[in-house]
User: What shape does this take?
Amino acid sequence: MSRLAAIAIKELTQLRRDRMTVAMMVVFPVVQLLVFGYAIDTDVRHVPTVVFDQDGGAAPRDVARSLEATGFYDVVGHVRSYAEISDALRRGVARVALVFPPGFSAASGAGRERSFQLVVDGSDPQIVASATGGATGLVAARNQRATAQRGAAAPLKVEITNWYNPEQRTAVFVVPGIIGVILTMTMVMLTAMAIARERERGTLEALIVSPVRSFELMVGKIVPYVGIGYVQITLVLIVGHVVFDVPFVGSVALLYLMTLVFMAANLALGLVFSTLAKTQQQAMQMSFFFLLPNILLSGFAFPWEGMPRPAQLLSEVLPLTHFLRIVRGIVLKGAGFEDLQPHLTAMGVILVAFVALATLRFHKRLD
Amino acid sequence: MTVVVDARHLHRRFGKLVAVRDVSFQVDKGEIFGVIGANGAGKSTTIRMLCGILRPTSGSATVVGHDVLQEPEAVKRSIGYMTQRFSLYEDLTVEENLRFYAGIYGVPRNRRRERIDAVVARVGLDDRRRQLAGTLSGGWKQRVALACSTIHEPPLLFLDEPTAGVDPISRRRFWDQIHALAAEGTTILVTTHYMDEAERCHRLAFIFRGAVLDQGTPAQVIARRRLRVVEVEVEGSTLEAAAALRRLERLDELSFFGTVVRIALRDEPEPTARVVGALREAGLRWRRVDEARVSVEDAFVAMVHEDARREENAA
Ligand SMILES: Nc1ncnc2c1ncn2[C@@H]1O[C@H](COP(=O)(O)OP(=O)(O)O)[C@@H](O)[C@H]1O
Ligand SMILES: [Mg+2]
Assistant: This one.
């Protein structure tokens, strides 16, 4: 234990002296978040919308106008069938369609319950969130006003159909995802450099010749960086909440607990890279190469469900794939431990595999 | 006498290159044993095999009672190793380096302070404790490295070219410390390619292209070469004198030291008379012709020549 502590203290001291790295670790997540956050936020309003009016009366036009007035929707055209809606969404002409059934105006005039349908392109969760929120908000407001004016009136209803995204993802998917991407990037890179640095500076030989066990060396090198990871998550969550108004539905403690396994898995993978790389440069390059599949396959940039089966299978070995489900689950849907346990187990298996691999690969010998 | 290092037919290949060839020697407790050889002779490779961090291709060794192949971790606990490149963390202070090495060598927490103070006092580092190791000069780095490798009071200390690139005064002081450690009972195996340092060892092994040419005390090794050395101070050109002297039979080596030409002769009962004869024959004049002490360097050069002749005969 004292040897492990010696390693950890030494790593921290060195880190403190490395101003550049510390600055990078604080600046990087914030810059990343602002770039990603704003890039995504610009398009959320004025979602191009088509109207499929099977009624033809005044009520649909009235509802459509009020929806446009919320700022979420821009009516870009009218269509005459579901096939045309499908076309418009596929081609990207529209992301939302409003469908009014026959008799909508009549029911409205008679004070009967009536409903319209909102079809949303689910491939972009941001759009799903705003399109759904806009319509449900408006409907609720209208019903409230009607009740206040006329007493118990028959309500207006909106039926939301999420196309291309049957899972009905609801809120801000990206900010929680960034936590995972940033942690993957920095954790892997930090430890990938750690052993390579010792090798480059000629201190590895002295470490190998000491009685330190491979396991002590590996864990001692991981521990200090876990602390840094927590600083990063906290920063992203705070900035995400303050600047981007990302809700935090679930338990912070649960998130921090589960993140531990995720960070450790990435740190351990960094150590595996470290044992493979001869120089820090190589270690850095490996980390960057590793980042790419993480962004593409984990479900961060593209919906995981839309990926082909082989890509999905491959993504299962990436800790980020599992972590995204966890972090989105906790932050956005308020998921509890039981809901997420399978993902946690998967990350645990990956962690054990990486630590074992790193420990096996790191022989306390030069040959 | 207890044998602390027992190397038996150590052999190590890197691909086709034979870095260490059938090396055997023994080091006794409290001894300063020098492994002497040029760059690339195989000194570091030999030390690494003895430390248990490099596996011999064949052969074996026992170090502080532990077999390097069977129990490398037990070996590691019983030794100190100062690597060729002084394994210091340049971004840590002297004291932080010492604390780190005390930690990984498992020096008990309550003894660390005392041990650090002791090694700091020994190598005279007191006013440098808070300096970053990277900002120290070569001589100081060497002292810190020695302090780090002795922090856990190892019974056996490996020093791999500890004085490479260090000024002569620091080198002397360093050797004083090595002798002090040996006097306290620490066994020391040191490699060097400085011949003046070879003379400071109790016993030596000369290693050339991976093979041990000879071993023993400096006096034994010198005596076995049966050399006589003559120094000639000439009046005219040293080059002319050298040309005449190179024709001497059984000449082992001729070298220049300023205005002095130094000649080593093998198996020569009357070396000065032979040199004077050769100079006279060439019509040269001299200021002085004296017999000089045979150095370890002379002996080493002679050994390399012996090796070359053996190879020639074999071919
Ligand atoms: N890891 C290695 N891989 C390949 N060749 C090596 C390795 N280590 C040493 N050598 C070679 O073995 C020979 C002996 O090296 P070394 O033991 O470092 O010599 P010395 O320490 O006496 O200068 C050299 O030719 C060196 O290039
Ligand atoms: Mg060497």
Chain A touches chain B through 26 residues (CB under 8 Å). Confidence is low (pLDDT under 50) at residues 39-43, 166-171 of chain A. Chain A has two domains: 47-163, 169-361.
